[in-house]
Specification:
This protein is mostly helical. The chain has one domain. About 70% of the residues lie in helices and about 0% in strands. It is built from 9 helices and no strands. The chain starts with 5 loop residues before the first helix and ends with a helix.
């Protein structure tokens, strides 16, 4: 049985602290989000980013409190995708950064080091075939995760490669830079959903469910706070609210079942 080592948990703490820093500024102090990231963006954008980073914090906390590596096996490549893509996208917008600001250097350092470590961990444990010992996931829930994974992955690829089209059709105003920045976590969530849809036990998917739930619910609440910025004459606004409402309900239900399964094993 492969356990999560102390060094891996230290890595999760490091990633989680940065995610918490950005998440708190973005979600709860959005008018000063540039204290945590290289740019100042409007409050809705800041809260959207904050939800993403608080989601990252939830991933890391769940990982820290996990014991066996199979519980975080999917989360590790998700970290690599998210942070690695942010680094690559940033390279195409070097002129957008103010290099006199410490936040810029932290941004580039973190998004170079974090994916490198995640890739190394994923490669090191690539042949790990240990399975969970919890209850089985219902087939229809795996089908939901598969559909969610396909839709979110396609959204991420559209944001990355067709940013101009997505800017024109996004339910609120964004720039090509933000569209491609957003593509990174969306691709991570999409690929993560696809991967866990193939697994069989709740304890193999619990960490990913918790982190993804925090994102979906956080975005839905942030969107309600800033609902005046949405044009409901545009179908994209209805898709946005409907999609995150359904995702919040489904992921909340599955997370509750996964935690109930863990409680049953420990009792």
């Amino acid at each position: 049985m492969q356990f999560i080592t102390r060094n891996i948990k230290i890595y999760f703490v490091a990633v989680g602290l940065l995610a918490l820093w950005v998440g708190v500024w973005g979600y709860f102090i959005p008018t000063k989000v540039d204290q945590a990231i290289p740019w100042l963006v409007p409050p809705l954008h800041a809260r959207f980013l904050g939800a993403m980073y608080l989601s990252g914090t939830a991933f890391m906390i769940a990982g820290i409190f996990s014991g066996k590596y199979f519980e975080v096996k999917i989360m590790v490549p998700m970290i690599a995708i998210w942070t690695g893509m942010l680094f690559i996208v940033s390279l195409f917008y070097l002129g957008e950064f103010d290099y006199s600001r410490t936040q810029v250097w932290i941004w580039f350092a973190a998004y170079f080091i974090y994916p490198a470590i995640a890739i190394w961990l994923a490669w090191t444990h690539r042949n790990l075939n240990e399975k969970g010992i919890g209850s089985s996931i219902p087939t229809w829930m795996k089908t939901y995760l598969l559909i969610q994974g396909i839709l979110v992955t396609l959204l991420a690829l559209a944001l990355l490669f067709f940013s101009t089209i997505m800017v024109n059709n996004w339910p609120w105003k964004i720039t090509p830079l933000l569209a491609q920045i957003y593509s990174a976590p969306f691709l991570s969530y999409g690929i993560g959903s696809l991967l866990i849809s193939r697994l069989e036990r709740w304890d193999e998917v619990r960490v990913v469910l918790i982190g993804t739930l925090v994102f979906a619910l956080g975005v839905f609440i942030a969107s309600l706070i800033h609902r005046d910025l949405f044009s409901f004459a545009n179908i994209s606004a209805w898709v946005w609210f409907g999609g995150f409402f359904i995702a919040s309900l489904m992921l909340g239900w599955m997370t509750q079942l996964s935690l109930k399964d863990r409680g049953a094993k420990s009792s």
